[in-house]
Specification:
15% strand, alpha+beta, eight-stranded mixed β-sheet
């Protein structure tokens, strides 16, 4: 059974990469069934505490006019099969299959509901349909926000945040020419995330069972960092990014990235990590001939200087008067504040703090020091 699941995942990804998923036959909504509509309304109330995203599920069925989304006679094209295969393949996205109602969503049950549609009760159809909807909404939100986003709880996401709504994404996917792509497009688009995603596609799909298989620990490490990249992708975009484990400062430019090495003590890095965990905004600033970090605890409080200073020069002879050192200070100032002539004026640039403990270079997994020993906690949560 496990090998069959892996095979289905591999085939799912192969078809997806070829752009063949859900293209051959157009999707048709099931017509209004006067017996089904009241059952859907009833079950939305009755199952509210068991659904992971009850408000989103209710919005989805309201958008459909309280019709079944997945269950219909086998003569009607629906996306239930595509949806089930997609959920079987969640490990390809660094996620865990157990989070998507696997005990309620079986192929045996789906076959029974479609091949013997007229003989099955409205309640059975609605319950399966609803669990599949909830599972897909979980998957969409997990791909977009991450499963354990510290800033966005399931309750907050379910209530509706900004212009992203998994119910709307799922409705659009039903009408799309490519069901799978319409859903998976909600993922981050950064190069780091795409590299991890491609490697998981290879290691848990194409290369399963052969000599190229990654150790399980490497796959989990990539999954952990994909989760963090989902958190970071919905942050306020900034030009400057500091990754704590790799001790690398990155300046994002239109066509490339510029990297600078840093050196810091544990207390300095802890101040930055704690600041971001407490929802503070960190910025890098020029004060005279120094580069410092500033912390903004909230919009109602003034900036306060963190106990972190960037001091140094281009020839690697860095000053030890501070507790954090950057090599290439002058280059950093030139790139960040090009066109600024008055360097004595306080100039700020937003700074994103990240905690990525690995990267991929030429398909080789590069591991960084988990300075604050937090990988294991996230791994345990994911798996």
């Amino acid at each position: 059974m496990k090998n069959l699941l892996k095979l289905s995942c591999c085939l799912c990804l192969m078809f997806s990469s070829l752009g063949l998923a859900a293209r051959s036959v157009s999707y048709h909504f099931v017509g209004v069934d006067t017996a089904i509509t009241p059952v859907i309304r009833q079950q939305l109330g009755k199952q509210q505490k068991k659904l992971y995203y009850p408000l989103s599920v209710a919005r989805f069925y309201r958008l459909l006019g309280y019709k079944l989304a997945w269950i219909a006679p086998d003569t009607v094209k629906m996306h239930a099969g595509d949806a089930m295969i997609l959920l079987d393949c969640v490990n390809q996205y660094g996620l865990n299959h157990t989070a998507y109602h696997p005990e309620k969503l079986t192929y045996t049950q789906l076959e029974l509901l479609t091949n013997h549609h007229t003989q099955i009760s409205s309640l059975q159809k609605v319950q399966f349909d609803m669990w599949l909807t909830d599972a897909l909404i979980i998957f969409i939100n997990n791909l977009h926000y991450g499963r354990f986003n510290p800033d966005y709880s399931a309750e907050k996401i379910d209530a509706g945040i900004g212009d992203f709504d998994a119910a709307l994404v799922l409705k659009a996917a039903l009408l799309s020419q490519d069901f799978t792509k319409a859903i998976t497009d909600v993922q981050p688009q950064s190069k780091a995330y795409r590299d991890f995603r491609h490697q998981l596609y290879l290691q848990t799909g194409l290369f399963v069972g052969d000599c190229y298989e990654f150790p399980e620990a490497g796959i989990r490490l990539m999954a952990i960092n994909m989760e963090r990249l989902r958190w970071y992708s919905i942050r306020r975009k900034t030009q400057v990014e500091l990754n704590i484990p790799s001790l690398t400062l990155t300046i994002h430019e239109p066509d490339s990235n510029y990297y600078l090495r840093i050196k810091a003590d544990q207390a300095s890095l802890a101040a930055l990590v704690n600041g971001t965990h407490n929802h503070s905004v960190v910025s890098v600033s020029v004060q005279g001939d120094k580069i410092v970090f500033l912390l903004s605890p909230s919009p109602n409080k003034g900036k306060q200087e963190l106990p972190v200073k960037f001091l140094g020069n281009d020839d690697n002879r860095a000053s030890r008067t501070g507790n954090m050192v950057i090599w290439g200070r002058d280059k950093l100032i030139a790139k960040l504040f090009a066109g600024q002539t008055n360097k004595r004026k306080l100039i700020r640039q937003g700074l994103n703090i990240t905690y990525l403990t690995c990267s991929l270079k030429d398909d080789e997994l590069i591991k960084y020091n988990d300075l604050f020993k937090i990988d294991k906690k996230l791994e345990n949560a994911l798996y």
